[in-house]
Amino acid sequence: MSDKKFFSLRKKLILFFLFLVATMIAVSYIVYINSLNTTNGFIVLMRNLIVLNNLSDNINLIQQNLEEYINIKTGEALDKYNSYYYNLTKEIENFSLDFTTENEYMAFNNIKGMVVTYAEEADKAIWASRGRDAGKTLIHMNECRKIYGYMEEQIKYLVFSCLSRNELIFYTLIKNMSRVQTIIIIFILGTGVLTMIFAVAFSRDVTRPILELTRSAKSVSIGNFDIQTIKSGGKDEISILASAFNMMASNIKRLIDEIKEKAEIESKLRQREVENLEISNLLKETELRALQSQINPHFLFNTLSCIANTALLEGANNTCDLLESVSDLLRYNLRQIDKEVKLQDEVRNLNTYVFIQKARYKNRVNFELSIEDESLLQLPIPCLTLQPIVENAFIHGVEKCEKPGKVFVSVYKNNNRVIIEISDTGMGMEQETVKKILSDKDDEASNIKGHTTGIGIKNVIKRLQLFYGVNDIVHIESAINMGTKVILSLPFEKASVNNPVNSNELCKRM
Amino acid sequence: MKKLVISIIIFIILLAVCAVYLTFTGREINHANEEMNYDDYKYHFVIITQQKNDIFWNKVEEGARAAAKDLKVAIQCISSEHVDIQHEIDSLELAIASRVDGIITHVPEEDKLVPIIDKAVERDIPVITIDTDAPKSKRISYVGANNYATGEKAANELLKEMPEDAVIAIIAENNKSSRQNMMIQGFIDKLAEEKVEIKKIIDVYNPDTMEAMDKTQLLINSDPDVNILFCTNSVSTIGAARAIVDLNLVGKIKIIGFGDHPEIRRLVEKKVISTIVVQDPYLMGKLAVQNMNDYKNGKQISEFINTGVKVFSWENINAFEQ
């Protein structure tokens, strides 16, 4: 924008008018000078001739009056002669002829000299005539006539010389005039052509961008922003208008684009919000369902014990026992999982579970529990560790077999460890499955959750490891169709203080 | 727009150039001769010559003007269109009446001019005769060649290669100017010493090439014996030479010419004219003005100022300068 100097329309116009005025002044000046020269030339031309003519007339008059005086002797003629002679001398004194050649100057000098000589001879003639000396008068008069003739001759020479010189001046002037006329015509034509060119160029310069502007403005007004940028060569108001318009149009276009973009983003956002809303709705629904499925355990226990009492009152002792067992099992299961219990609690819970299972499977299952030493039951143990394993034994060892199955649980002491053996006569497992269960990896296949507690064998193993701070706790022996034996070898002492925290965390993670 | 600006600038420059040009050309007319100021000239001399547009007298005027320019003297050259004794006398009278400072004049006829020259001198106007002399008058000096000696010199040149059967004719002007008379006299006297006679003297009226040619042809037709022609001026020299060329007698008739003219020089180179006797008109004009100026300034000047005579023939014509 600022690389070129700002050149306003007004400046342009003023400059142009200045140029026009200057041209006119120049032309006028040239014409004036030329006419002055021409006039001067003609004045010189005429003045020379007039002066010479006057001179000739004067000399003529002098001669006439002298002749008259000599012939007729009138005082009037003598007076006239004297006055004319006086005029002549004055005239010659003030004579100002522009001599261009030496000969002209000399001719004039000759006249000057001859006037004096003439006067001398005339005086002599006058005196002689007064003295009545006719002969002498005649001699001097002849002399006077001769000199008069010479003077006329010289004047004639001067006139011709002037004329021939004037001819030169005249033709020079004529030539000059015609030349000046040609130049003036060229000037006028040139000025005219330049003015026209300027007018056309200027109007085009001004109107073309304006036309473009109006066209663009129209197209912008009907909402079409895809306009070409308006080009303007000069640096004037129009170009500023054009560039401002260009900028405005491009800005509007940009803004509109931005708004469009924003609208798009907003619509996308709204869509996502709707989606989110749907998700949250689903969640709430699920939550609701979850809530619906929840029943207060205490209500359940109370209800169960109420049913049990009812069964007892009605004389259904078995039902009463079963309901109480279920109630106990539920209570034990619902207690806080991170709490430490004693082996005897676990065993009691196991008996409850087995009682229920026996009621279910009747004679299909044979459960045996052997405890070597009652003191072993004081062993601290994490809650709900035995039940999931026994549950597995029931499921795999009894439930899935056609024939009646056996589940043995024996607790004994060996090498400062309490060994708990849980074996079944079920379908057994492949070695790979055993390895998977014993490996540290968490995967769906190995982490089979218990039916009642929802706790998998792997969870049990990990909790035991953390609880006692020892890794070699679980040993599984299994063969297909031969049954499975899970051996837990537990140390007497539980691990250091921080372990329960870990077990707690583990429990929370579950 | 840029083009327009450039064209405007060009136009303005054009305008300026034209304006300056016109202004100066206009001035030329009025101020062409401003530098000439004749009032500075100390003396005004008049030179009266025999004839206008004559190579000899043009040279005289040229020399006179050159000298006048150096000396800051104004001169007026008065001459008639043709040879006209009355015009020369009138011119002299005019100069006297005009009270000029000095008169340098050619003397067409001594007898007629002596009283007028004397009248001028009586009125304190010094007179110097040029080319031809008027020894009887009161003129202060004569500037020119010794015409008698010129005739003698021509005769000497002729005598150098004089054929046995020489028949000599002289082609002269009819007006008896003292220069011509003296020259012929010198020529005849010198030849008389060697006992050679002149066959004929032919007068040519108003020296004119055509007339000289015609007269020469007539002479040769009537006197076929003539084999030597002595011409006393440049015009008759050219005329005679042309006649010889026309008659196909080049080499048979010997011409001894007088005066300087490019045509004469050309004819000498072509051996149509065997010898020319040349005076120095430029020097005459120059010395006349210089001596007149000296006289006016009160210096003594010699009564006879010899401008010399030169002889040129085919051998040395290339050495001819001027």
In brief:
With 510 residues, chain A is of the alpha+beta class. In chain A, 70% of the residues lie in helices and 9% in strands. Chain B folds into two domains: 38-145 and 281-307, 3-Layer(aba) Sandwich (Rossmann fold); 147-279, Response regulator (Rossmann fold, 3-Layer(aba) Sandwich), CATH 3.40.50.
Q: Can you write the helix and strand succession of chain A as a string?
A: HHHHHHHEHEEHEEHHEEH
Report the β-strand fraction of chain B as a percent range. 15-25%
Q: Compute the separation of the termini of chain B in Å.
A: 66 Å
Strand order, main sheet of chain B: write it out.
Answer: 2-1-3-4-5-11
CATH architecture field of the largest domain in chain B:
3-Layer(aba) Sandwich
Helical amount among residues of chain B, as a percent range? 40-55%
**Average pLDDT reading of chain B:** 83
The H-level CATH homologous superfamily of the largest domain in chain B, spelled out, is Response regulator
The description of the largest β-sheet of chain A is: 5 strands, mixed
Give the helix/strand layout.
The complex is a heterodimer of chains A (510) and B (322).
Chain A lengths: L8 H64 L2 H19 L8 H29 L3 H88 L15 H57 L3 H18 L2 H18 L5 E3 H19 L3 E7 L8 E3 L3 H14 L5 E10 L2 E8 L6 H8 L18 H12 L5 E6 L3 E9 L7 H11 L1
Chain B lengths: L1 H30 L12 E5 L6 H17 L2 E5 L6 H13 L4 E5 L3 H13 L4 E4 L10 E4 L2 H14 L7 E6 L4 H16 L4 E7 L4 H14 L5 E4 L2 H13 L7 E5 L3 H8 L5 E5 L1 H16 L7 E3 L2 E5 L9
Parallel strand pairs in B: 1-2, 1-3, 3-4, 4-5, 5-11, 6-7, 6-8, 8-9, 9-10
Antiparallel strand pairs in B: 10-12
